[in-house]
Write a structure and sequence with these properties.
By secondary structure, the protein is α+β, with helices and mostly antiparallel strands. The protein has a single domain, classed as tRNA(His) guanylyltransferase (Thg1) (Alpha-Beta Plaits), CATH 3.30.70. The chain has five helices and six strands; from the N terminus they run H-E-H-E-E-H-E-H-E-E-H. Strands 4-1-3-2-5-6 form a six-stranded antiparallel β-sheet. Strand 2 and strand 3 form a beta hairpin. It is globular and about 55 Å long. The N and C termini lie far apart (about 60 Å).
Length: about 170
């Protein structure tokens, strides 16, 4: 086979797995640690990884972490990689894995999936379900203020977090 034919065949196979999320849909990336040992420093390490993910090239407006899980809400207009899921999940999983490995000085890995939601109510419900799903007293969340570009770490009780989200319009 000629190089062009091989290249076209490879592109056809790529197209079968490379889905995109439609513009106007909210995107949430959910990262889950794989085989990460829970220890006293894990919370601080996960906050560090979350901060890193908010500044590694994606326009993330909100992040939530608890245990070995991180959820990232992208700005509604985020268009990195033209919203192609394969690229986004591989980059985020790689970034999170590399950062936690560096911090802990031992191998750490994450998987990642993208969730597409049609409206703010579903976004709120998603984050409420993530906080209800954990057995922890505190959750750690980041809000990004678009006017100032400032990020703020919020550490609150799980109940207060849920109450706050219930009051969001």
């Amino acid at each position: 086979m000629k190089a062009n034919t091989l290249n076209n065949n490879a592109k056809a196979f790529d197209a079968t797995v490379n889905h995109t999320i439609a513009s106007g849909m909210y995107m949430i990336a959910r990262l889950q640690g794989r085989g990460i040992l829970f220890h006293d420093d894990l919370t601080n390490n996960m906050v560090d990884v979350t901060e890193h993910l908010m500044t590694c090239g994606f326009n993330v407006t909100y992040a939530h972490t608890t245990g070995d899980e991180i959820s990232l809400l992208f700005h509604i207009d985020e268009d990195s990689y033209h919203r192609r899921t394969v690229e986004i999940v591989s980059v985020l999983a790689g970034e999170a894995s590399a950062r936690l490995t560096y911090i802990m000085r031992q191998f750490a890995t994450f998987d990642c999936k993208l969730i597409a939601l049609a409206n703010k109510r579903l976004v709120k419900d998603y984050f409420l379900s993530r906080s209800a799903d954990v057995n922890t007293v505190n959750v750690w969340s980041y809000w990004k203020d678009f006017e100032s570009g400032r990020r703020e770490l919020i550490t609150v009780s799980n109940q207060k977090f849920q109450d706050t989200l219930h009051n969001v319009n």
